[in-house]
Amino acid sequence: MEAVRNRINVKSFFSYILLLLVMLAENVRCEPSLSDYIRPFVGTKGQGNTFPGPAAPFGMVQLGPDTADDLWDNAAGYKYADTSIMGFSMTHLSGTGIPDRGDFLFIPQIGETKLVPGPTNNPDSGYRARFSHDQESASAGYYKVTLLNNNVTVELTAAERAGIMRMTFPASDHASILTDLRHFLNGNVDAPGRFKLIWSHVRVEDNSTVTGFHLVGGWAKERYLYFAARYSRPFDSHRIFSNGDEVKYNTYRFRSRNEAAGTNLQFVAEYKTRPSEVIQVKVAVSAVSAANALQNLEREIPDWDFDRVRNETREKWDQALASLQIEGTQEQKETFYTGLYHCFLAPSLYEDEDGEYRGLDSNIHVARGFKNYTVFSLWDTYRATHPLFALIQAYRDSDMIQSLLAHYDQSVDHLLPVWSLEGNETWCMVGYHAVPVIVDGFLKGVKGIDKERAYTAIKTTAMNPDYDSVAAYSRLGWVPFDQENESVSKTLEYAYDDYCVAQMAKALGKKEDYQYFMGRASSFTNLYDPSIGVMRPKDSHGQWKTPFNPHFYDDDSRTNDFTEGTSWQYSWYVPQDVPRLISLSGGREPFAAKLDQLFNFHQSDTIKGLDDVQGRIGEYWHGNEPSHHIIYLYCYAGQPWKAAERVHEVVRTQYGNKPDSLSGNDDCGQMSAWYIFTVLGFYPVCPCSDYYVIGSPGLPKAVMHLSNGKKFTMTAANLSEKNIYIQSATFNGHELNSPFLPARAVREGGTLSFQMGPEPNKTWGANAPIPE
């Protein structure tokens, strides 16, 4: 009897364990993955410049809907306020202020085939399709919408170099899928003639395969891209159109109906469909050749398993996002992981499966020992995006740095990129900010950097006499406004970049170079006018510009002294030597009072160009990158509690999980990277230095899984909407009474703990020495 009871008990025990395992499995399945917190529709107030479609992290293909193609405020193709979709194109930018990409648009149609999109105010006149947000959804690696005018449901997913479209058709004797090779995203409304499709070619390889290419002259002046498309169902028939005419065999124009070349080509695959019939199209791209595009397609999506591709890409997002794990509210998690998603869209992969890519010299190169990337918005991303990569995406940051060096090797001018896009230099913005990306990566321990090769590239770039008055700057100590536009901004940004060159020279034992570039790094002092307390332009004879309004900003002018800002916004840009800037301002108290004045400025209606600027608090402009470090300057002035107030104000008012939450262009992740660092409690005010600056944490807990295998944890006890002030802090259990956090403390891992409260502790961090 005892043996029977024991068998029953054993049986019950194993049943109990089995039940626990089932319950645990159910709980695991119910717990959201990190990808579930991504909200792809989060964008900017009044603008449509973030990308909502599917892409793998840093993927070459970014497949998504285009609602307009010729508006500067629609640079990513999709504007949430629009009510019709032109179609679905293979490549996009995310968060830029200038449009490009939007290559190879696909759109399903029912009935008469239309070859032009038609205007937004009359979508039925062309192939443009109406849609509604209540029949649209997007998540990591997936997008779905029902087109209301033809009742076709379109689903999209993407791998790294290829994507797949799943289209569910109604019954029709006249269904079709059009590919418009003329389409790309452009700014011709504001810059007529600058953007144009130079040439294209399309070829029907068999009854289910099409290849082609187009050459676009846009923001990137010479951008080649090829595609290869395969259809899950062979065409019932197909047609090619050139300039609106069907391509047919005749001896005067065409010798084949299966290929054509020109500047206005459309390909149409035609079908008779059954009710709810699914036709899939998988497409890969290449900057090298159609053959390479086919190879990319065969290797990345060899089958027709849409859900497999979707799930694999979602898993890639989960793995990428897992480098940062946070606690917080649902809204905080959605805002945080959507921001991290934005950071991981660019730079984007720019090479084929075999490593081939088209270089800056228009030749075909092979990336050996690294993956080649493009879309380097360096004026933006050197500030926080790349410093974030150096911590949690170091292996990719290494590849990106080697991509910058490859660009230098291919440059006829021996320059690192300024703003590179698919084998092109756009020359957008100012400075030579590939330098801090390379140097900060090197100093933060990013592997795989050839230090001597890298130093040669940064020094040669900084000494190039033909680049934007660098020769005059090095001779005079400033960029003269009578010889160069945006002269003050260029002086300040060159000075910071020179500081970065100096730091690498110091690390490599190059003492003379260190002294030389540190001397140039102090050039900002030459433009500080003590009579007005801000930076002021000087001419080549050393005379101040007169008259001069330090609050003036004219975005339409080509003779600005500042890059997208006023003197009051730019005069704080001395991250490499804040103590000197404080001294020029008369000391800590006057410096802090001047910061207060910046945030309390109330005369926007008198300043040309600033009346409609987004993200403003006084004259502080969070929607543009030169302001991103300014709040943290309160910490240098001994008033970190004011930094706490302002960072929480910006996080509360200029970020969120809604379609209009961002206050300005995300700029390839920089706007989001500011948020990521800020809510973690610290920020890289001066990349290439050996410290971060503590503001005020915005999350109760965050764990950063570093690329070196170590773990950095931040906790904020008693944090709430009111408890925003740091009362005390410890690092690894030791008291920390300074707002300056050593970079090695983060890099080597540990725990940073804050005690938060509702009133400022004005003694915390007030007398901390400023790192040299």
| Strands in their spatial order, largest beta sheet | 6-7-8-9-18-13-12-11-16
Largest sheet: 9 strands, antiparallel
What's the helical proportion of residues?
Answer: 25-40%
The class by helix and strand makeup works out as: alpha+beta
Approximately what portion of the residues adopt beta-strand conformation?
A: 15-25%
Rg calculated over all Cα atoms: 28 Å
Number of helices: 19
Mean pLDDT: 93
| Backbone shape | globular
The stretches of 5 or more residues where confidence is low (pLDDT under 50) are: 1-8, 10-16, 18-29
Straight-line distance between termini:
82 Å
Number of strands: 37
Describe this structure in words.
It is a single chain. By secondary structure, this protein is an alpha+beta fold. The chain is 28% helix and 23% strand. The chain contains 19 helices and 37 strands. The strands form eleven sheets. A nine-stranded antiparallel β-sheet has the order 6-7-8-9-18-13-12-11-16. Strand 30 (682-683) and strand 31 (691-694) form a beta hairpin. The chain is globular, with a radius of gyration of 28 Å. The termini are far apart. Residues 1-8, 10-16 and 18-29 have low confidence and may be disordered.
